[in-house]
Write a structure and sequence with these properties.
The protein has 473 residues and is of the alpha/beta class. It is globular. It folds into two domains: 4-221 and 378-467, Aminopeptidase, CATH 3.40.630; 223-372, Alpha-Beta Plaits. Helix 1 packs antiparallel against helix 3. The strands form six sheets. A six-stranded mixed β-sheet has the order 3-4-8-5-9-19, sandwiched between helices. 33% of the residues lie in helices and 23% in strands.
C-alpha cells in the first residue's frame, strides 16, 4: 500500500514509501564492471593533491580512454588552469528532443593522505570482501571512473541520446575550486546545460544491517567560507617570558569558539529531510528528528542530533578550526599565531555576518581577521519532477520502493558554482553506504564494492530516462 506525502514550496514532490524488498539487478556486462575497477586502480595510484601537478596527467589518461572508445577528438577537451586542469567530454545527441544538454560533473583531485597514518597505502587500490580502500575511492575517483565507463559503454552500444550529454571533470574541487569557476566563466558554451548532476554527494544510505533505507538528492548546499584569525605580539627571547603571548591569545579565542554554538536554523529542505528520515532510523536519533520537526526549538532533540557528525551540519551554521601556524623559532617568543577556521554557513546568512559573530565570540579586538579566498553562495535548485521521477525509476532495479528524500548538503561541491552561474544542480551518486563507513577526507577511506555494479545500473537508467531509450542503429 502506498503512503504519499508532498514537499511544499519546492514543488509537488511526492515521496512513495513502499515495503522494502531485496535488490533485483540486471548487471552491466562484466567487461564494464572490470573497466570501472581498472580505472579506479589507476586513478588511486595518482596522487592528485593540490600543488603536486598530477591532475593534468590524469586528465590526459582519461582523455585517451574516450578517444580509444571512438569519441571524436574535438569532443574531448582538456582545459588547463595553472598547475591543474579540467576535462570536458561531449556525447553528441541527435537533437530530436530540442533540449539543452545534461551535465555530469565530478572532480579528479583529492585531499592529502599520509601513508604513515593509514592501515593501507592510500595511493594503492586495495580491497577486502566488502570494500575498496584508497584516497579518493569515495571522494571522488569512484564516480569519475563510473562516469567514464558509462560514456564508453553507451558509445560502444551505439546509443544515440535525444540531446547532448556532457561530462565536466574539474581539477581543484578540494582546494580553491577555481577550475569550475573557469568553466562557468570562460567555457560556458561547452558546459551549458538544462541542469547538472553533481556526482559527488547525495546517494543511498545503508543501516547497520546493510539494508538500504533511503536515497538522498541534494537540492542545496551551505556556503563554504574560510577565515584566518591572527594574534600578533612584539615577541622576544624565550628566556624572558611575558604575560602577553600570541599563542596564548589565540588559544584563548579558540577555546571561546569551542564553547559557542550557532543557533539552530531550519528550512523546507531540512525539515522534510528530518521528517522522512525519522521513521526509517527509529531509536533515539529517529525520535529526535521527529521531535525537532514538531518543535525546532526542542533542546533535547537538538542535543541528540548535535552529537552525530552526520546530522549536526543540517541544524545550522558550523565553524571549526582546521589548521594552526605559530611562532618562528623554538627559543623565541611568538610574534604571531594564526588559526584557519572553516565554516559551513546555513543558507540566508551572509559571510560577513558570520565573521562578525566569530569576532564577538573571541572577545579580543586585537585579533586580525580575514576571509580566505572568495566564498560563493547559491540558492537551492528548483524542484524538477522529471529528474525526481527518473531517480525513482532508476532505483527500482536496485532497491524497489526506496524513499527518495531531498537534502541540503553540509559540504561544498562544484554544484554551488553551477547554481550560482544559473545551471540548476542536483547532487547524487550510485553509491550506497552506511554513514559510519563514510571516511571521505579521513583515514582508510572506503567504498562498498557493491556500489560498482549498482552505479552502472543506476546511471545507465538515468541517461535512458532523461535522454531517450537505449537502442542500436
Amino acid at each position: 500500500m502506498f503512503h504519499t506525502q508532498c514537499l511544499t514550496k519546492l514543488g509537488t514532490l511526492c515521496l512513495l514509501f513502499l515495503s522494502m524488498q531485496l535488490p533485483a539487478q540486471e548487471p552491466a556486462p562484466p567487461r564494464y564492471e572490470t573497466m570501472v575497477e581498472d580505472l579506479l586502480r589507476d586513478s588511486i595510484a595518482r596522487e592528485t593533491v593540490h600543488g603536486l601537478g598530477q591532475v593534468p596527467a590524469y586528465a590526459e589518461f582519461l582523455r585517451k580512454q574516450f578517444l580509444t572508445a571512438g569519441f571524436n577528438p574535438e569532443d574531448v577537451t582538456i582545459v588547463p588552469y595553472k598547475g591543474t586542469a579540467s576535462l570536458i567530454v561531449r556525447y553528441p545527441g541527435d537533437g530530436s528532443s530540442n533540449r539543452q544538454p545534461i551535465l555530469f560533473s565530478s572532480h579528479m583531485d583529492v585531499v592529502p593522505a599520509d601513508p604513515n597514518d593509514w592501515v593501507r597505502n592510500p595511493f594503492e587500490l586495495q580491497e577486502d570482501e566488502t570494500f575498496y580502500f584508497g584516497r579518493g575511492v569515495v571522494d571522488n575517483k569512484f564516480d569519475v571512473s563510473v562516469l567514464t565507463t558509462l560514456f564508453i559503454w553507451l558509445k560502444e552500444d551505439g546509443y544515440v541520446p535525444s540531446r547532448d550529454l556532457v561530462i565536466a571533470f574539474t581539477g581543484d574541487e578540494e582546494s580553491f575550486q577555481e577550475t569550475v569557476q573557469q568553466l562557468t566563466r570562460d567555457h560556458r558554451e561547452a558546459i551549458n546545460a538544462e541542469f547538472a548532476f553533481v556526482v559527488d554527494g547525495g546517494g543511498g544510505v545503508l543501516n547497520d544491517a546493510g539494508e538500504a533505507i533511503q536515497y538522498k538528492v541534494g537540492f542545496a548546499e551551505k556556503t563554504y567560507a574560510t577565515f584566518a584569525v591572527t594574534a600578533r605580539n612584539p615577541g622576544g627571547h624565550s628566556s624572558l617570558p611575558r604575560s602577553d603571548n600570541a599563542i596564548f591569545d589565540l588559544t584563548d579565542a579558540l577555546k571561546r569558539l569551542q564553547r559557542f554554538r550557532f543557533p539552530v536554523e531550519t528550512n523546507e529542505i531540512t525539515l522534510t529531510y528530518f521528517e522522512r528520515t525519522a521513521p526509517l532510523l527509529g531509536g533515539e536519533v529517529g525520535a529526535a528528528m521527529a521531535q525537532l520537526v514538531a518543535d525546532p526549538s526542542n533542546a533535547e532533540a537538538i542535543e541528540v542530533l548535535r552529537q552525530k557528525p552526520e546530522y549536526v551540519g543540517t541544524l545550522g551554521t558550523t565553524c571549526i578550526p582546521t589548521m594552526l601556524d605559530g611562532g618562528h623559532a623554538e627559543n623565541a617568543l611568538p610574534q604571531s599565531a594564526t588559526a584557519t577556521i572553516n565554516c559551513r554557513i546555513f543558507p540566508g546568512n551572509a559571510v560577513a555576518d558570520i565573521m562578525g559573530t566569530l569576532q564577538r565570540v573571541a572577545e579580543n579586538p586585537e585579533l586580525d581577521w580575514s576571509v580566505v579566498g572568495m566564498p560563493v553562495s547559491s540558492d537551492a535548485s528548483p524542484f524538477n519532477s522529471e529528474v525526481m521521477d527518473a531517480v525513482k525509476a532508476s532505483l527500482e532495479p536496485i532497491y524497489p520502493g526506496i524513499p527518495v528524500i531531498p537534502q541540503m548538503g553540509s559540504g561544498t561541491t562544484d554544484g554551488a558554482f553551477f547554481r550560482a552561474a544559473g545551471i540548476p544542480s542536483y547532487s547524487l551518486t550510485g553509491i550506497f553506504i552506511n554513514p559510519k563507513d563514510a571516511f571521505a577526507h579521513g583515514l582508510n577511506e572506503r567504498v562498498p564494492k557493491n556500489s560498482l555494479r549498482q552505479s552502472l545500473i543506476f546511471w545507465r537508467s538515468m541517461v535512458e530516462e532523461l535522454a531517450g531509450a537505449s537502442g542500436t542503429p
